[in-house]
Amino acid sequence: MKNLPSNISRAKYDFIDSSVLEKLKSYAQKPISDLEKIPAQDPYSVNGQKLRLNFIRQHLKIDVDYLSGEKIFDDNQSLKGNIENYIGMSQIPTGIIGPILINGGMAQGPFYVPLATTEGALLASYNRGSKACRESGAITVITLQEGVQRTPTFKFKNLIDLGNFTSWVLKHKEIFVSITKETSNYAILNDLSINIEGNILILRFEYSSGDASGQNMVTICTDKICKYILENCPTKAVFWTIEGNTSGDKKATSLVTRVRGRKITAEITLKKEVVGTVLKTTPALLQQQWKICSSGPAKTGTIGTGMHPSNALAALFIACGQDVACTGEASTAITRMEIDENGDLYCSITMPNIIVGTVGGGTSFPTQKECLELMGCYGAGKSGKLAEIATALCLTGEISILAAMSAGQFTAAHQTLGR
């Protein structure tokens, strides 16, 4: 987003960098070569497991010694900062799907995606959605906004005190930027907004957080800023707290036009032939199913129109050492399906709260690191890539589940592959 005018906060507006557009156009013009498929035979046997592990080692050149169970975690000292009262590891089955073919601003190419779950039929569904997409082309994915928030809240005796406090705060925004730089090597304060409710003032600090998901980072920076305000502002608050529960942290909110983490949109046009051969339905039936399922949330007060993005995100987050509680906000999604002039099916998903990290948190634990390495997403400079893969993954799942329902396959699939 480097071409965004300097006087406009990138956390306020959807924006597509011209260099990203050129990158997308260039990749779209490349012929799609034959993609190596994951060995799908013997889905539960030791032999099938070995086939897939060998595929990962030989084709992707990634060591998976911890995922395979050949090595056991024993570095207890590395747990500091991640857990207290440690007793052992919870083992959750991990599988792999793909490749998902992506043409993104940060993620380009075929990606084999690890998912950890105990829900039967889940990986089969996402694998089928991935196949339908790659047989139709690459999923185009674009990051539109970035931002992580903290919303400290202050209470005053009256509106006059609140007004004086607010005026002082707005005159010192540049100092807050400097405090952020001094406090963190990665956080950047992009924006400050204000919401007033009687004698309550909510400050919304908006940051970018580099390759970390950023919740702890922005909390520490905001705390330093607030303490500076409290020590130096001549008007004093009666009470204050670091978070007024309005940032959207780990919960679905109605602020779908803004951003928490990254706002990302993805699209694919499914060829009508592929809809028939892979998804066993028709564009007309799929679109009709989407219409029904996108109007349902309006009747129930659901935020977003997605069917089950949380399924993909929870499984991906567990496998890759993310904060799984963030599925609460990250799973908010707007989907769209419509038949184009050729009779093909245009599908899109927009997700305003994809919050992931490729450094810090649980990303460096052995199996989580191996899963991130499977996608080339471990370490600095990779969080945007992971976020785009996560969004494309969610789109494949929306396509597959709606197709299954439209063709009457949903129940049978769960009877065969589920519990």
Question: How is the secondary structure organized here?
Answer:
Elements: H1 18-28, H2 46-60, E1 94-104, E2 108-116, H3 122-134, E3 139-150, E4 153-155, H4 159-170, H5 173-183, E5 188-197, E6 200-208, H6 215-232, E7 239-241, E8 261-270, H7 272-277, H8 283-300, H9 309-319, H10 327-330, E9 334-339, E10 345-354, H11 366-374, H12 383-406, H13 410-417
Parallel strand pairs: 1-3
Antiparallel strand pairs: 1-2, 3-6, 3-8, 4-6, 4-7, 5-6, 8-10, 9-10
Helix pairs in contact: 3-12, 5-6, 8-12, 9-12
Q: pLDDT average, as an integer?
A: 89
- CATH-defined architecture of the domain at 92-145 and 262-366 and 375-401 and 408-417: Alpha-Beta Complex
Largest sheet report:
10 strands, mixed
Q: How many H/I helices?
A: 13
Number of strands: 10
Give, in order, the helices and strands: HHEEHEEHHEEHEEHHHHEEHHH
What do we call the CATH topology of the domain at 92-145 and 262-366 and 375-401 and 408-417?
3-hydroxy-3-methylglutaryl-coenzyme A Reductase, Chain A, domain 2
CATH class of the domain at 92-145 and 262-366 and 375-401 and 408-417: Alpha Beta
Secondary structure: helix percent: 25-40%
Q: Write the CATH homologous superfamily of the domain at 92-145 and 262-366 and 375-401 and 408-417.
A: 3-hydroxy-3-methylglutaryl-coenzyme A Reductase, Chain A, domain 2
How large is the share of residues in beta strands?
A: 15-25%
pLDDT < 50 stretches = 1-8
Radius of gyration, CA atoms, in whole angstroms: 23 Å
Shape assignment: globular
Structural class: alpha+beta
Give the quaternary arrangement of the chains.
single chain
Termini gap: 46 Å
